Amino acid sequence: MYRKNAWTCNTGDERTALMAFAEHYKDFLARGKTERECAAQAEEIARRAGFMPLEEAVQEGVRLKPGDRVFSNWMGKSFMAFIIGSRPLEDGMNILGAHIDSPRTDVKQNPLYEDEEIAYFDTHYYGGIKKYQWVALPLALHGVIVRRDGSKAVVAIGEDPADPVFYISDLLIHLAQDQMAKPAREVIEGEALNLIVGGMPLEGEEKDAVKANVLRLLKEKLDVEEEDLLSAELEVVPAGAPRDVGFDRSMIAGYGHDDRVCAYPSLMALADYEGVPEYTLCAILTDKEEIGSVGATGMASHYFENTVAELYGAWAGEYSELGLRRALRASRMLSSDVSAGFDPNFASVFEKKNAALMGRGVCFNKFTGRGGKGGSNDANAEFVAEVRRIMDEAGVDFQTAELGRVDVGGGGTIAYMCSKYGMNVIDAGIAVLSMHAPWELVSKADLWEAYKCYCAFLRGARKL
Length: 464
Prior knowledge:
By secondary structure, the protein is of the alpha/beta class.
């Protein structure tokens, strides 16, 4: 089915709003290179929009009422926000769920070493990446180093023009005959992603003098010792802010579009909501999706369920296990995650009429997974029809797609983990080119349609 280009519908004042929204998103993306940084920004946005910490409400015995706004920042890596509706929680919530982790390279816990008077950090890549894409480009270090006493050194080096950057070297083409003959997955081995962090020896030192100088600078600048790196979370990410692409500035190149390009409009759709909703509204920004949603901050854990249990108790005045189960089962959710944008340069891996096209609006993936829909959610037809109704009534440009040709590839989202409660879930995001590369590409028109989609879903989704 033909879907018109979303740019043809966004004219006048709406085009101005679209461009302004894109600038706000670029700022969010530039300041949110890690899940911790995204969660901190989400809390700032929520507080400005009148949300209060759910934990404080629970501790103070506050009875939540329709219109109340609460949030929970879980371990500083996952974030949830709610607006209490006028209907009972047992009638379910309208939920937007995105992830804020992105593929990258993580610094190992015993990372620092010197080899031939160059100091390195050992790394271990995180998520699905083409390793050869992460060499020979300027890189930044973001994260935290937690000292023995529990105090933290916050690290963000490589973004300011005055900052140094870091670097992973590649083999020069003149000596790369054997390297160039290897399969792409072997051109750069995982253990070769060694980050160059120094090259100047410390005066007066004879052994590992460059490493000693790096340790001196870490102590001077961050007040940390080498042992403190044992309890650090340092992420190696591309240095630099997102940039407009094209003579017409219609697209954005940046690190972490997957999935912050869905996380930001999901959060803003909730923060911008006015009045008292009929159903309780929720936005989830979660961690660890890129490695299977595992761990205490991933959707496979029970942190979301536990938070909704606290919410239920603060709303009802007492906790009910049956009430919680009914609330989760009756909920409706958009799993706000990106889709693979059709790339004419690599058309053979797509089935075009079922591919997400850049500039054609928000994209719904009824199912994800791989092969025979393995690991998929596969939304019910009744819920797909409900989503179509909401989009059409709100004038949202949308398309449907799947992730590549059958038997070629595939991927997963958090959708199937949320559907385990019995709630209706469908993936809804935007097309991305060069997904999982250090710099990914999205359309500003698609970003805007995603925001409109999420706003419409919060307003219009109803109990089936």
